[in-house]
Amino acid sequence: MDLVQQILLTALAGLVIVLVLFFVQSGGISRTFTSSSSPYFKPTFLILGANNAGKTSLFYRFVDDSVPEGKKRPVTPTVSSIEPNITEIELPFSNNSISRVYQLVDYPGHLKYFQLFYKLLLEDITLQKVKGIVYVIDSSSQWFNNSENIEVISKYLFNLFSVTERLQNGVDFLFAVNKNDLFDSVPVHKVKSVLEAEINKLIQNELNTVDKQSGIDKSEDDAESDEQYSSTIGHESLREFWLSVIGRPENKFTFDQLEGNTDFVAGSVLKNKVETWENWFDEKVVNSNL
Ligand SMILES: Nc1nc2c(ncn2[C@@H]2O[C@H](COP(=O)(O)OP(=O)(O)O)[C@@H](O)[C@H]2O)c(=O)[nH]1
Ligand SMILES: [Mg+2]
Q1: Cβ(81) – ligand 1 distance below 6 Å
Q2: Cα 162 to averaged position of ligand 1 atoms, centre (Å)
Q3: Which 3 state secondary structure label does DSSP give 260?
Q4: Whose CA is nearest to atom 11 of ligand 1?
Q5: Is 179:157 a contact under the CB 8 Å cutoff?
Q6: Which CATH superfamily is domain 42-287 in?
Q7: Would the CB of 181 count as within 6 Å of ligand 1?
Q8: What does the pLDDT profile of the chain (290 residues) look like in tens digits?
Q9: Residue 175's closest CA among 277, 107, 246?
């Protein structure tokens, strides 16, 4: 090996070492290889909510309304509410000539899948790519006036916000208050205030609890799912996060305190009253150049 080759080799080795150090220090290895190589790393809208709220029905409504005839791709409908549905839709709904492709994800609401959901959200899609979340709520009195149901969805949101608000401007939420075709459906303003009060309870619980692992009372059954939450978001950081949202411990939580916008809009997938919800998508896509 002559001198020139030796110098070149040494320089190359140096460069490799510098690059490796850079990746390790910036956490670049995990980020580079998980997010950008994932097939789900695309601009995305998520449809979330409890079981039976109407997520999958809404997913297919959106698919039908967004894809022009002739370009429709078959989406395999899930029978149970266990598997997520993932497809691509063209937005805005109102004008097909300027359309762009977005990923649409319908994710089952059960707490059991929260950990898997976090992986999909944070490592595959990544928060930066989330352009909005549609949170579907069953507004029938039968469902909504059951305090257990409210506890479950409030807990879900309580944890989800602590993740979405990691982005500087948060993530925008559309609360799709569904099934308003039913004669006994709960009005939007009540849905909003009941959720605010329940989330506030969880926050107060979290702030007042020092030693317990989670501020949420647990039965044997949901201890496991709470554990799944806390392995993703530490108890300490959850408390700090919520304190930073409400400002002072004595303040009450309102959705306005979040960085992301939250819109509560009534509608019905069954009666095809989804126009205002579709306008919400269009506004995001057209105005903010997402
Ligand atoms: N009355 C009424 N029922 C609805 C509406 N949207 C969905 N449903 C019904 O609610 C049930 C659950 O819907 P689905 O889309 O599977 O909910 P998911 O579990 O959230 O995916 C189905 O029986 C739907 O027909 C609605 O706007 N009004
Ligand atoms: Mg479903």
Answers
A1: yes
A2: 28
A3: coil
A4: 52
A5: no
A6: P-loop containing nucleotide triphosphate hydrolases (3.40.50.300)
A7: yes
A8: 677 788 778 777 777 766 655 555 554 444 444 455 899 999 999 999 999 999 999 999 999 998 766 666 666 665 566 788 999 999 999 976 788 999 999 999 876 778 889 999 999 999 999 999 999 999 999 999 999 999 999 999 999 999 999 999 999 999 999 999 999 999 999 999 999 999 999 999 999 986 555 444 444 455 555 554 544 567 778 899 999 999 999 999 999 999 999 999 999 999 999 999 999 999 999 876 65
A9: 277
